[in-house]
Amino acid sequence: xxxxxxxxxxxxxxxxxxxxxxxxxxxxxxxxxxxxxxxxxxxxxxxxxxxxxxxxxxxxxxxxxxxxxxxxxxxxxxxxxxxxxxxxxxxxxxxxxxxxxxxxxxxxxxxxxxxxxxxxxxxxxxxxxxxx
Length: 132
Fold this sequence. Notes:
Layout: E1 2-5, E2 8-17, H1 23-34, H2 39-46, E3 49-57, H3 66-75, E4 82-88, H4 96-103, E5 107-113, E6 122-128
Parallel strand pairs: 3-4
Antiparallel strand pairs: 1-2, 2-3, 4-6, 5-6
């Protein structure tokens, strides 16, 4: 989904149903194993989920509810049991993205995870669907 103001793109949200042959899911499975997560919990999380892959709002459009509106529109009516996402770790979770995810009810799945080929630390967050 996208948000436009005339011809200006203000925001975009994108995602897809997760599947075992996808790189991102394989990375998350590895991270869950590394943290000692029970295999049954791993199956519950990754057996039926939607990956919120991208949610970006132009800086001048942030802080007005557009990110939440796009996330809600993208996730409305999804048949999957869960939604998962990855986001860069931020000291104290002190940015608008983190505040949005927490406001939408996302909880920690894995913290301080390093994807193959990326030196940054990420958090994997998730919640059940539908959104409240």
